[in-house]
Amino acid sequence: MGIDIPFIWVAFKEIAKAIPLTLMLAIVPIIFGFFIGLAVTLIREYRVKGLYSIANGYVSFFRGTPAIMHIMLIYFGIPLLLDRIFASLNISFQTSSIPIIVFVLFALSLTAGAYLAEIIRSGISSVAKGQMEAAHSIGMSTYQAMTRILFPQALAASIPNLTNISVGFLHLTSIAFLVSQKELTGTANIVASSNLKFLEAFIAAGIIYWGLSIIIEGISHLIEKRVREYSKGGVA
Amino acid sequence: MGKVFDPSLILEFIPTLLKYLGVTLEILAVSILFGVLIGIGAAIPKLFNIPVLKQLVTIYISFIRGTPIIIQLFLVYYGLPALLALIHIDITRMDAFFFVIITYSISNGAIFAEIFRGAINAVEFGQTEAAYSIGMTPFHNFTRIVFPQAIRVAFPNIANTVIGSLKDTSLAFTIGIMDMMGRGETLIASSAHALEVYIALSVIYYVVVLILEKGFRLFEKYTNRYQGTEASVA
Lengths: 236, 234
Prior knowledge:
heterodimer, A: 236 residues, MetI-like fold, B: mainly alpha
């Protein structure tokens, strides 16, 4: 059982075709998750009655269970729920016609929402309270103070966390292969089993993930440098 | 799917799955233990600036942090036998459990190395200088001065890594190990009640994470016990 080095390159080219799908599976949940996280943060910040404990429970549960559970619960649970609703409304819609990727995106968005809620919260709490008071004192409305003063600073402080979650979600997409998505790991698995060269295929997939992670970290480093230009801490 | 959702099955599945929680926790405990050892070993070249080793460790950490755990699992599962076959050791019949332990230990090791390095660097160098000036040996300086302060900084990250690692073990079943998740998969195959099994699994994972979080919070309070008084004096 030797290693077929040239095959790694063959597998690499084949698996690389799955990069767009993988990136889509990572980016879409983060975007949706950002809005979910924002909503959760507002609910928790203003202690909205009724929703407050739901938001807390949501964040705690999704951070406390493996993401594979979220995918499976959504994948098996939502069709069941929808079928019941459609049956009671007498609509003949087959939930089995919904592509699996929709469930994956939905589940990962909920996962991202929980993690981003915590990131946004820590970002906001990193902005000094006086900033908000100062904005109010010069006559800004709460909305203006939030969008012009609070969020830009909170976002800048959250960049390292956002980088971590971006890389984390890139890696998280690999479990989508368990519900037969043809993303990087899924494609690697297909290439591996059709050529019976498992090690080579997964080496190729590993290199691609590694490369993508390094690129994400590089981009965030550039962004951070630019953003920090205006908000240097310390004494110098 | 196919069958009607039956909530009572969730309660029925939980005891069956709980019997395999031990395997999951065993994977977690052993891989954390080895992970800490690897982490210490990998942090040393970076802390003491040892050439060559330092670059190797950097590549190791970067690779582990740059690839999903599932890929690492497959690489060890398929790669280790191929690697050892070169020196004529046959491990193709080895239990999947060992591959899982090896993968998670290597993976945790990289994360711990970064945590340890960061924590030790967070302790001011003045502390070491002060320790030397009152005649402490480097060993005493580390065990009595630097380490107790570093562990305080490192602990929240260590706790997060343990919890993250517990959640990662849910992927070990992909190479055919019979942990809680693996047992869940066989339950689904035999009962065809996938949703109930996954709900039961989620409940167990969630409760274990909540217990771990609670325990870690207590320990964190303990490691911070001198911080509070310091703040009240200031």
